[in-house]
Specification:
InterPro entries: Beta_Casp, MBL, Metallo-B-lactamas, RibonucZ/Hydroxyglut_hydro, RMMBL. This is Metallo-beta-lactamase family protein. Keywords: Hydrolase. This protein is an alpha/beta fold. The protein folds into 2 domains: 273 residues, 4-Layer Sandwich (Metallo-beta-lactamase, Chain A), CATH 3.60.15.10; 177 residues, Rossmann fold, CATH 3.40.50. The chain is built from 14 helices and 22 strands. Helix 4 packs antiparallel against helix 5, helix 4 runs antiparallel to helix 8 and helix 6 packs across helix 7. The termini are close together.
Amino acid sequence: MKIAFHGAARAVTGSKHLITLSNKTQILLDCGMFQGMGDVTEKLNSYFGFEPKNITYMVLSHAHIDHVGLLPRLVAEGFEGRIFSTPGTMDLARILLLDSAKIQEQDADYAQRKNRGSEIEEPLYTEEDVIKTLSQFTVIDYNEDFEIDPRITLRFTDAGHILGSAAVHLNILDEGKETRITFSGDVGRYGDLLLNSPQTFRQADYILLESTYGDTLHKDLEPIENMLLEIINDTCNIRKGKVIIPAFSVGRTQELLYALNSLELKNKLPDVPYYVDSPLSLQATQVLKNHPEVYNNGVKQVLKVDDDPFAFKGLKFIELVEESKALNNDPRPCVIISASGMADSGRVKHHIRNNIGNAKNTILMVGYAEPRSLGGRLVSGARTVDIFHEQYDVIADVKSIRSMSAHGDYEDLLHFMACQDPEQVKQVFLIHGEYNVQQNFAEKLKDKGFKHIAIPQYHQEYEI
């Protein structure tokens, strides 16, 4: 049996991991889009490193674009097998992939008009490709042993990352030997603002473990809502500017709304307009409301006094493009939450372009951004940035709340691994992390008794 790493290898995006059995059965774990990788992003998304038509089964850990975003392209290029996910992941994937196809088509059209037709811009896939992809889904509940075929059993456990997110556990019988493989997906936080904590899982022989924050602790001196309050007050009430918040439509936007709603419940919410400029965010928020089983006890207590923990005075969801454009012509102070989270695509990129040159405004990053993405360059302190092939001086204030992450820090990751007997784990593969971070995290794992740790390179293959 072999395993190859075709994405999220010494990087935090484009998750794709391919297991190949001796009889040529192939199981693909995730099929994510590369994001924020600079000039090489397009090239990375156009080449899988394997033949889609040869994939037998596809298992999806969760519905973030860097884990699901290339799935319709996989289908368009010949994959005809079943796609396994939790019900929540399928619900989110439906809206996210349709939105992704639409955004790609819009961005391609905008770029081509900007270049006056000198370059042909093509989207990675269309809405038709998404609809075909959705027809291939099979949903499996958490903690259910599902027989994919007589040699392969699949189980999902709650990873606590976003709605529907799962750690993937495979029992594979190959050449008379049973092998237990765990793929962590993205591991959430213990004590998350909204969701249940990650579940324990049974013993594995091989573990593919994400490591996004493998050398970081999410320790801030004050609660997230207090930091939001300070930034909104300073920007909107004192400087009379706008707060632009790039936020993933799935997960991060709902956390922001919950924190702002908490401020209103405490009569602290600043009296300014709040806009969520993302049709997908509206849909994702509704999907989350339809799955109250994922809420932690804190949210359940809030629901006893507030029947909608994601709504508050002054909040408006923006759907039409014309409404989105109008925000840029409105000089009044406000808060705009818009996708994408790394600020590399979608409506937020236009909002940043229109507001980055004014010192009254604040661009607030609320989670991880790949260093080469627009959000990553802003967080790193760049004084000029490229937006739609034009250079802009960074005059607006740039702030970051790094603790607003759906990814666990290194203590959360070690907690996740604590249910395992290190002596029985033959290999830990560190994925979904920057290389220097992974090297540091590997030492922390060794201190916990995990002796065999590999950090795969892009397209590297291992015999297991």
